Amino acid sequence: MKLLQCYIDNIITTALMEDINYIDVAADNLIPEDHISSAYYVAKDTGVVCGIEAAKRVFELAGGGVDFKILLKDGTKVNKGDIIAELAGSTLTILKGERTALNLLQHMSGITSATNRCAELVSGTNAFVTDTRKTLPGLRALQKYAVTVGGGKNHRFNLSDAAMLKDNHIDAYGGITAAVSALREKVGHTVKIEVEVRTLDELKEALETGVEIIMLDNMNCEEMKQAVDICGGKALLEASGNITEDNIRAVAETGVDIISLGALTHSVKCFDISMKIRKQPS
Fold first, then answer.
1. For the whole model, what pTM was predicted?
2. Span 149-176, mean pLDDT?
3. Would you please indicate which residues are annotated as catalytic (active-site) residues?
C-alpha cells in the first residue's frame, strides 16, 4: 500500500503549522543556524514500527539539512532499546520537527502493534482482522495504512466505497428487504451491499435478499456460531462490537470471515518511542 506523497505532506504541513506559528521561541533564540547535532529514535517497548517514512519527511519539510538514516523499516518488530533511526544535521530542524515526527510515528506504530497482536491471535482460523471508519479526522489513510502494516485489512475507506446498510438506515427506511430492494434498483453492478443485523431472524431475512456481506452486530459467540451455520457460505459474515484482544480468538473460532475493530484506530495506545539528541562534548 503506497500513499500519495502530497497527502502525507498535507498532513505534516498542517501539523507543523499547528506546532510552530512563526518561530520556535526557544530554539530560534538559543541555537545558531549552523549548529549541528546527531540524534536517534529508540523503542521503549515491544511492538511493530510504522510511520518511519512519514517521520523522515517531517524533517525535510521542517527546514531540511538533516540526514535521516532508517535502520528499521515499517513492519519491523522491535524490542525495548532497539534503535529505529539515526539523524545528523541541523539542530534547528531536528528540534522543530521532533514532536510532529514523534506524534505520527508513535500513533501509527501503536495502530500497527495493536493490529499485529490481533492478527496473530486469530492466526489459523478463517477470520481476518479489519478496521472501520472510526478514524481521526484527516488521518484516515495513514491510520488504515498502519492497519495493513500490522497484518490487518481495510474496511471501506469512505461512504462511496460500498453500500452498507446499518441499523439506522434500515429503521429509517422500514426494513431490510425493502431497503436492499430499493438500493439495488439504483446502484451500479460493481457496488457490493453489506447489511448489519442484530438478530438471527434479521440474518435470515438479509440472506434472502442476496447481499454479499452481513455484519453481526454485538452478537455473542454462541449466536455467531448459529449465524455461521445458517449462512452456510452464502455471504461473508463480519463480527463487530465489543471485540477485544481477550475475546477475539473465541470470536474467530465461531467461523466468521471478518472481525472489525474500531478500537484499532479510534482509541489505540501510542507506541512508546523517544528521540534523543546525543550530548555535545564539553
1. 0.93
2. 92
3. 99, 134, 166, 196, 217
